[in-house]
């Protein structure tokens, strides 16, 4: 992360996750989050002990649940009941989100160009405060977004004998917020295709808004509305990163993509889900079907909630902070204290506020130092885990039913991939080694001249052949071309804007419960996640086959000079 983003994120994660564990009866006492050269590390400290020793015996945990942990157990009973979870989802949609949207629009309407130093500082502080408020909502809704999905998976295991992967496929397409922006832009692109001359001008590089204004007032208005609603989002979870509106090249590529690429695939996924749900229900007795339907309805609401909350809290409010920081940066650049407005992302928010309110001091040395530290860290990334492996989680059988469900769901989500029935998800490593079948299907033998390159977690089913495009961050987003295999370290919720262009997805980090998996399943894009080494092993332009069902990435066998495979879905 940038210095600006890290200064906000470390506080948001520390405060937000710690409060969420308290509210819902988690066994974590506090969460600590620190930035080292822009890389964020978090540590979860259990309620009892420092997390380095052996977990308590189930009998001891049962005693603690009735004594020292009694308040947490009551919190789980009160706030994590099905009624309370449903109320939290309804409150978000009926009260919290509309209020957040109103506050966003109010701050976006501020004319920052006419503000002086104190005025800019006040606006920046207001934007920061709204971001902090939004992130508290974000983390407060984490458990309501996880527990119903986990409860649904348990029902499917018991009634249908499904593994977790099959259970989650019954939810693919149930997160409309994930694809809403891409589908809306695809509809504009479809209408633009009815004006071949205008489309050709856009493809030639003319400004999209100007071309549409000359072509169709309705089309121009809808495009302006789309820009306002979706293009002011951060391209990742870092408020110091750019927003989509700053990347007209990327917006143009998305607008010119085959209109059926986004909306067609999304509808195909939703249709397949309807069929899979109908098939699952058909074999159930009446009582079991009612239980399945109730669990599915709760899980659908929760599944869609997660991406919706991420869009409004992290992406939209992060974009607001980004815009406010750049307004302050333009003022500092005019004063000659930084070289360009964007340099403010290399200052922590408190330092930026002090600079805007104070005055005089040259900030270029501080900017250069932070930028150099971040560049060094990019070139010498730290290990995924500091201090050795995490200790084994406690046996939760000693907890009351509601607290046990909450903590099982948290461990299940934290594991990075679903667990088979009867196994403990938290004992599995979060990332699969780059070589060797540490999890899931055994590595298949070479086929059709292809050799296995990487083993990963099956994130979204299907197979796809195409050329690799490594996207290291938002700065590289515009390099992705239609049909290429998007290879990246990890994706953020806001990266869903890129998925209509991608033929498949491969990541270093992530699992079947990650944002990347949810978005890939929503678009029907094969995905292999958690490979650890995709970005360091694969190369731009390299032809690969992505098997999202098996969790494998295959390369071309034989002579490296052989022509690339033809792309196929």
What is the secondary structure topology, with strand pairs?
Blueprint: H1 3-24, E1 28-36, E2 39-46, H2 58-65, H3 70-79, H4 82-108, H5 117-140, H6 142-160, H7 164-169, H8 176-192, H9 196-203, H10 208-215, H11 217-230, H12 248-256, H13 259-282, H14 286-334, H15 349-357, H16 364-379, H17 401-414, E3 450-455, E4 457-460, E5 463-470, E6 485-488, E7 504-507, H18 515-523, E8 527-529, H19 534-537, E9 543-547, E10 552-556
Parallel strand pairs: 5-6, 6-7, 7-8
Antiparallel strand pairs: 1-2, 3-10, 4-8, 5-9, 9-10
Helix pairs in contact: 1-5, 4-5, 4-6, 4-14, 5-14, 5-15, 6-14, 6-17, 8-11, 8-13, 10-11, 14-15
Distance between the termini: 34 Å
* Percent strand: 5-15%
Percent of residues in helices comes to 40-55%
- Spatial order of the strands forming the largest sheet: 3-10-9-5-6-7-8-4
Report the uncertain regions. Answer: 417-444, 558-569
Number of helical regions? 19
Major sheet details: 8 strands, mixed
> Average pLDDT, to the nearest integer?
85
Q: Please compute the radius of gyration using only Cα atoms.
A: 24 Å
Give the H and E element order.
Answer: HEEHHHHHHHHHHHHHHHHEEEEEHEHEE
Number of strands: 10
Shape: globular
Structural class: alpha/beta
């Amino acid at each position: 992360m940038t210095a600006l983003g890290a200064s906000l994120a470390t506080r948001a994660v520390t405060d937000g996750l710690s409060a969420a564990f308290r509210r819902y009866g988690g066994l974590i006492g506090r969460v600590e989050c620190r930035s080292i050269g822009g890389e964020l590390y978090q540590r979860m400290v259990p309620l009892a002990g420092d997390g380095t020793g052996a977990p308590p015996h189930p009998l001891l945990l049962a005693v603690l649940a009735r004594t020292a942990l009694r308040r947490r157990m009551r919190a789980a009973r009160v706030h994590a009941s099905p009624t309370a979870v449903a109320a939290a989802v309804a409150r978000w949609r009926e009260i919290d989100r509309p209020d957040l949207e109103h506050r966003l629009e109010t701050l976006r309407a501020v004319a920052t160009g006419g503000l002086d130093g104190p005025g800019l500082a006040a606006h920046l502080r207001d934007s920061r405060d709204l971001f902090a408020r939004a992130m508290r909502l974000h983390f407060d809704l984490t458990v309501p977004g996880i527990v119903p999905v986990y409860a649904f998976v348990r029902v499917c295991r018991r009634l249908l004998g499904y593994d977790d992967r099959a259970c989650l496929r019954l939810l693919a397409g149930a997160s409309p917020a994930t694809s809403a922006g891409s589908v809306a832009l695809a509809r504009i692109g479809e209408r633009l295709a009815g004006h071949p001359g205008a489309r050709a001008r856009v493809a030639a590089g003319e400004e999209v808004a100007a071309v549409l204004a000359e072509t169709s007032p309705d089309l121009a208005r809808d495009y302006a509305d789309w820009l306002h609603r979706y293009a002011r989002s951060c391209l990742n979870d870092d408020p110091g990163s750019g927003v989509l509106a700053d990347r007209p090249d990327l917006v143009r590529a998305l607008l010119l993509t085959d209109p059926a690429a986004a909306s067609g695939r999304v509808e195909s996924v939703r249709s397949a889900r309807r069929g899979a749900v109908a098939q699952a229900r058909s074999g159930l007795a009446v009582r079991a079907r009612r239980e399945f339907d109730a669990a599915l309805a709760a899980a659908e609401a929760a599944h869609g909630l997660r991406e919706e909350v991420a869009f409004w809290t992290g992406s939209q409010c992060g974009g607001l902070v980004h815009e406010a920081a750049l307004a302050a940066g333009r003022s500092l650049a005019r004063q000659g204290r930084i070289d360009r407005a964007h340099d403010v992302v290399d200052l922590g928010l408190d330092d930026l506020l002090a600079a805007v309110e104070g005055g005089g001091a040259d900030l270029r040395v501080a900017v250069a130092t932070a930028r150099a530290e971040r560049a060094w860290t990019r070139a010498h990334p730290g290990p995924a885990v500091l201090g050795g492996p995490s200790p084994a989680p406690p046996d939760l059988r000693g907890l009351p039913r509601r607290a046990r469900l909450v903590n099982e769901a948290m461990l299940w989500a934290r594991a990075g991939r679903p667990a088979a029935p009867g196994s403990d998800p938290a004992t599995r490593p979060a990332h699969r080694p780059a070589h060797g079948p540490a999890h899931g299907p055994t590595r298949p033998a070479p086929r059709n001249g292809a050799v296995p390159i990487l083993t990963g977690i099956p994130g979204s089913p299907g197979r796809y052949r195409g050329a690799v495009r490594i996207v290291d961050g938002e700065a590289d987003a515009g390099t992705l071309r239609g049909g290429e295999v998007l290879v990246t370290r990890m994706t953020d919720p806001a990266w869903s804007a890129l998925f209509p262009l991608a033929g498949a997805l491969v990541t270093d980090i992530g699992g079947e419960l990650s944002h990347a998996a949810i978005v890939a399943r929503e678009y029907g894009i094969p995905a292999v996640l958690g490979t650890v080494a995709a970005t360091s092993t694969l190369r731009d332009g390299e032809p690969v086959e992505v098997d999202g069902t098996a969790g494998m990435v295959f390369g071309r066998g034989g002579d490296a000079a052989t022509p690339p495979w033809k792309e196929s879905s």
